[in-house]
């Protein structure tokens, strides 16, 4: 599975508190909540949690893109997520 391979790469290089690992864990939570909400469309509490996690991931990605653009590009490529529009 992609998760185990990616965790092993990150844990060898950096700690679990790194921006990359946090974005990775938020992405997994987002994917899990999205599949949950496809089944339970009226679960408004989970929708709120999803929006909060999306905001946290967006702020972390904005931080990473400002600090190190190469690591940002590599991360969004590995996680296959879209590049965010920076205001």
TrEMBL record:
HAMAP family in the cross-refs: Ribosomal_uS15_B
NCBIfam families referenced in this protein's UniProt entry, alphabetically: S15_bact
Gene3D superfamilies named in the record: S15/NS1, RNA-binding
Classification via Pfam families: Ribosomal_S15
Gene Ontology molecular function terms on file: structural constituent of ribosome
Coiled-coil features, chain-numbered ranges: none
Family in the record: Belongs to the universal ribosomal protein uS15 family.
GO biological process: translation
Assembly: Part of the 30S ribosomal subunit.
GO CC terms, sorted: chloroplast; ribonucleoprotein complex; ribosome
InterPro entries linked: Ribosomal_uS15 (IPR000589), Ribosomal_uS15_bac-type (IPR005290), uS15_NS1_RNA-bd_sf (IPR009068)
Cellular localization per UniProt: Plastid, Chloroplast
SUPFAM superfamilies (UniProt xref): S15/NS1 RNA-binding domain
Main location: plastid
Organism of provenance: Eustoma russellianum
Protein name: Small ribosomal subunit protein uS15c
């Amino acid at each position: 599975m992609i998760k185990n391979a990616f965790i092993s790469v990150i844990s060898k290089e950096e700690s679990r508190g790194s921006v990359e690992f946090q974005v990775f864990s938020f992405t997994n939570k987002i994917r899990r909540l999205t599949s949950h909400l496809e089944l339970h469309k009226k679960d408004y509490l989970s929708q709120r949690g999803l929006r909060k996690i999306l905001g946290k991931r967006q702020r972390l990605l904005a931080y990473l893109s400002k600090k190190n653009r190469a690591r940002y590009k590599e991360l969004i490529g590995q996680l296959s997520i879209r590049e965010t529009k920076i205001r």
